[in-house]
Design goal:
The chain is mainly α. It is built from 15 helices and four strands. Helix 3 packs across helix 4 (59-71), helix 10 packs across helix 11 (241-253) and helix 10 packs parallel to helix 12.
Length: 341
């Protein structure tokens, strides 16, 4: 394949080699391709935070895409973290593709650079190791014969990520279930499984016990998201990427549906619509005060109102001490409704 020239705004150009394009196409990952173009465009002189902002993505997205670029050997990772900088991604000049330079890594634990295996190595492993069991079971679970490229990717999970055979097979079962729940019901391809395997390696999932715990936590988060979608009156669609970042942040802080429902109610009353940043500020403020449940929030509001009334010389008892009686009543109705199902 000949080189492919990309013309950028103005007179600037970059050139991608045919070999680089082939790697990106075979990977089939648009995230990695987008990040790679960003690295070229900025000459590698930006931080992970800047990349996330420029591309409107999370830092986790940057980390994941960077890990794949490393595996493709389009960037070299050192033992520092990506949080320090994307600098040294390689003195990428505006005329030529120079990917093989240092770039700081997405995780605190370095992801090893995977090697390229040959078909002979894969065949030898099938003939002489328990990788044969992994292949047989994977084909049975997916209901198809794996292609040579599929076998190379699967062997990379087995030989490079060092996931035990039983964990690999559990991972594949999990991926199949995920596709049934969130996809069109078709079995996942090996690229999908490979991306999940990198996630499991980063999460340190090397035993069946850890895998079960991880899957259980994912299911709990999925159910919580469903409850929150109902609270926010989002129907017939999933959260957008930005919405999901907000929701996952609230769940990570420890909020449950009752508190989130009250925050939503306040947001609607105060702004007239669903203002995600406004609602996020409310929940972060409660989190900073250690308020996690609806009961805690209502009691805190009563206490604050009582202190305000006291400072204004109002009676310390009676209805005047109630914090916006209508608001407290509304909060209580929300709580009762959630508890009542």
């Amino acid at each position: 394949m000949s080189d492919f020239k990309i013309t950028l705004p103005g007179t600037e150009t970059v050139t991608l080699t045919g070999q680089t394009i082939d790697k990106l196409i075979r990977a089939g990952d648009g995230d990695a391709a987008l990040l790679y173009l960003y690295i070229l465009r900025t000459n590698g002189e930006s931080t992970s935070s800047e990349a996330a902002i420029a591309l409107d993505k999370s830092k986790g997205w940057v980390n994941s895409a960077m890990a794949l670029l490393s595996r493709l050997k389009l960037v070299d990772l050192d033992e520092n973290t990506l949080d320090n900088s994307l600098n040294n991604a390689g003195n990428v000049n505006s005329q030529i593709d120079q990917p093989e330079k240092h770039i700081e890594q997405a995780q605190t634990t370095p992801i090893r650079e995977s090697r390229e295996y040959s078909q002979d190595e894969v065949k030898h492993a099938i003939d002489s190791t328990d990788f044969a069991i992994v292949v047989d079971e994977t084909q049975r679970k997916l209901g198809k014969i794996l292609s040579p490229d599929d076998l190379l990717r699967l062997f990379g999970i087995y030989g490079d990520l060092r996931l035990p055979p039983e964990v690999i097979l559990h991972l594949i079962t999990h991926c199949i279930n995920e596709c049934r729940i969130t996809g069109d019901g078709r079995a996942p391809n090996i690229k999908y499984i490979e991306r999940a395997a990198f996630t499991w390696e980063r999460e340190g999932i090397f035993t069946l016990e850890r895998a079960e715990e991880y899957i259980k936590n994912l299911e709990a988060k999925r159910l919580a998201r469903t409850d929150i979608r109902s609270i926010l009156h989002i129907k017939n669609r999933d959260f957008s990427a930005t919405e999901k970042r907000y929701v996952d942040g609230w769940l990570q802080m420890g909020f449950e549906a009752d508190a989130i429902a009250i925050a939503y109610d306040i947001t609607i009353i105060k702004t007239g619509n669903m203002a995600w940043p406004y609602m996020d500020t409310i929940l972060k403020n409660w989190n900073s005060k250690g308020l996690k449940t609806a009961e805690q929030i209502i009691e805190k509001e009563k206490s604050l109102k009582a202190r305000e009334n006291s400072a204004l010389g109002k009676p310390s008892s009676g209805n005047n001490n109630e914090p916006s009686r209508e608001e407290v009543a509304r909060m209580t109705r929300i709580l009762d409704k959630i508890k009542g199902g």
